[in-house]
């Protein structure tokens, strides 16, 4: 009822704006408890880790004796007890902290070297096997000869050798044919190389 009368009196007084009435009830309450600090994050897990590793009381007793000894004898160079704040590992410091050398490093390097050598040996064996399946026609002791291998030179390695020596003399061929045979004529296989030799033998007969 009091709120209604207040609003009515305000309107009769000619208020130029809206009239708002706030009604509140004052109730006595018990005093709020005192605020207590809470540990969160990694600091909250620290007591539990200490409890799992051993009693905090037993861990704290030894540093207290060392601290008493330092007060009597002076600085002994021993490190103090690790507190909860210092026990938290700094990720950045742990990142650059020195690490123990990896075990069996020499064995890993030896195995890696052996694997590389094995792969290289397999590649060389495959290349050599492929080269010995190739044939070309060249000259050996002034004779038209079929060679097995590649028509190329590798220092210190013979990658081709005479396979069949024909009776076609290089001197009995024309100058152009002799130059071509001397340079080497590639063949697709042994049969193709024999056909090339037969063609030059026929030219030799014609020239003769």
From TrEMBL:
Keywords: Membrane, Transmembrane, Transmembrane helix. It comes from the Bacteria. Residues 52-84 are annotated as: Disordered. The chain crosses the membrane at residues 110-130. This is Protein phosphatase. The lineage of its organism: Bacteria, Bacillati, Actinomycetota, Actinomycetes, Propionibacteriales.
């Amino acid at each position: 009822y009091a709120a209604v009368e207040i609003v009515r009196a305000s309107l009769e007084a000619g208020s130029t704006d809206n009239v708002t009435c706030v009604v509140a009830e004052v109730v006595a309450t018990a005093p709020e408890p005192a605020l207590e600090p809470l540990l969160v994050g990694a600091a909250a897990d620290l007591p539990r880790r200490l409890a799992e590793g051993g009693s905090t009381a037993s861990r704290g007793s030894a540093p207290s004796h060392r601290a008493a000894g330092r007060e009597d004898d002076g600085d002994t160079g021993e490190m103090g007890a690790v507190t909860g704040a210092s026990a938290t590992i700094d990720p950045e410091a742990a990142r650059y902290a020195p690490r123990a050398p990896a075990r069996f490093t020499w064995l890993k390097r030896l195995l890696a070297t052996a694997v590389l050598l094995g792969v290289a040996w397999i590649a060389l064996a495959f290349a050599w096997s492929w080269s010995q399946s190739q044939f070309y026609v060249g000259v050996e002791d002034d004779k038209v000869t079929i060679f097995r291998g590649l028509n190329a030179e590798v220092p210190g390695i013979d990658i081709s050798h005479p396979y069949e020596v024909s009776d076609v003399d290089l001197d009995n061929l024309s100058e152009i044919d002799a130059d071509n045979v001397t340079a080497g004529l590639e063949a697709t296989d042994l049969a193709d190389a024999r056909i090339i030799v037969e063609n030059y033998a026929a030219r030799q007969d014609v020239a003769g």
